[in-house]
Amino acid sequence: MRTTLISLLLILPLFSQAQEDKSSFSLDEAIAYALQHNYSVINADRDIVDAQKQKWETIAGGLPQIDGAISYQNQLKQPQSQFPSILVPEEFLPPGVVQDPNVFVPIIFGQPQTATATVTLKQQIFDGSYIVGVQATKAFLSYSQNNKEKTDLDVRKAVVEAYGNVLLAQESVLISENNKATLEKNLYETKRIYENGLGDEESVDQLQITLSSVDNQLKNAKRLEKITLQMLNLMMGLPITSPTELTENLDDLAQKQIDLGLLDSEFNIENNVDYKLALNLNEQRYYEHKLEKSRALPSLNAFVNYGGNSFSDSFNFLSSGQEWFGQSVLGFDLNIPIFSSLKRSASTQRAKIALEKAKTQFTESQEQIRLQLESAKSDYILSIEEYDTSKQNLKLAERIENKNQIKYSEGLATSFELRQAQTQLYSTQQEYLQSMVDVINRKTELEIILNQ
Fold this sequence. Notes:
CATH architecture of the domain at 24-60 and 127-297 and 343-450: Up-down Bundle
Strand content: 5-15%
CATH class of the domain at 24-60 and 127-297 and 343-450: Mainly Alpha
Structural class: alpha+beta
CATH superfamily of the domain at 24-60 and 127-297 and 343-450: Outer membrane efflux proteins (OEP)
Largest sheet: 4 strands, antiparallel
Helix content: 55-70%
Oligomer: single chain
Strand order of the largest sheet: 2-5-7-8
Number of strands: 8
Radius of gyration: 41 Å
Shape: elongated
């Protein structure tokens, strides 16, 4: 029993590490991973924490503030004052000086070293700008949260596009490899026929041209497969060299993304993140206008301090026998704005103009969002239609190419006709692959607008 327990304890960390080092992802798993590890998402989370700290920073500005101060002075050469000798006691007169109202003697007051220690409590009693600032912190925090939501949606869209591009590149590699194998077989057979004197050289050249083109496409598809995989890793927050594997199939994934019921979904514009951000801008301009108006109000602050002074001819302020003289002050500061040569008025009017512009932009944003929704629906329908069409066209192109293969082998079709059929097939294959990616991307765009 003890051995089993020890074995479990050893295995659990390895299992946990294996979970963290997961390298194969479905589309949903890739999105979930990116929403935790994407670099922009991480910084958006930090922005929320920063906004929370900024909120408290603003609130704390109106709460009691306590400051301490310590001052030390050593007068290396003390200032002197001159008084008539008649006013100075004889014991302070230099030798040989008699008390005479016409004779002035220099006198040094105080000791050369001074230490002062004070503690001051400050409290804001009323400040209009502080009240507005506290109110605005809620809007700023809301903006940070909505910006985080916007970042999450952008990352989701980027991951979907990157995931689809990787699948597209992988399928392109497979198709190009199959096409190349077929062409190599055709070219080999055609060369043999030509060498036996039963064919023409042009047929060999035509097939060689097509093979070279397909070979270049294959090389490019392999390069794109590597680049698109690195892009997906970057979007997910993984090292770009990570050996990530995709568990989805492009055709199956496209089939799952076809959902015409999404077109009839109820649209609540208030759930749209762009609407929320436009509303945040409107709130920000409102508080900026309110802040400028508050600057015409008086502000009142109170303070009280307590401290002490000590004097000596040497530095012995830390000794227990050193005498300190206490002092305390209670005071109020009232600042009343009276005249600013219409500066405050101009600032307030500018803030009001900015607020009116924000209201207009808010109305425009709502109309743009509604237009984006209709455009996204249209694009989604079009992508499904093109997917169905390209799927049918692919079957036709394959049938045409197969017939021309048979005709060519039987001598009923020229190499030029075969090349045309093959080129048409290759083009249709790429259109079919791209149509599947378009279905996936267009659905994601529609879901983002609907916030689903």
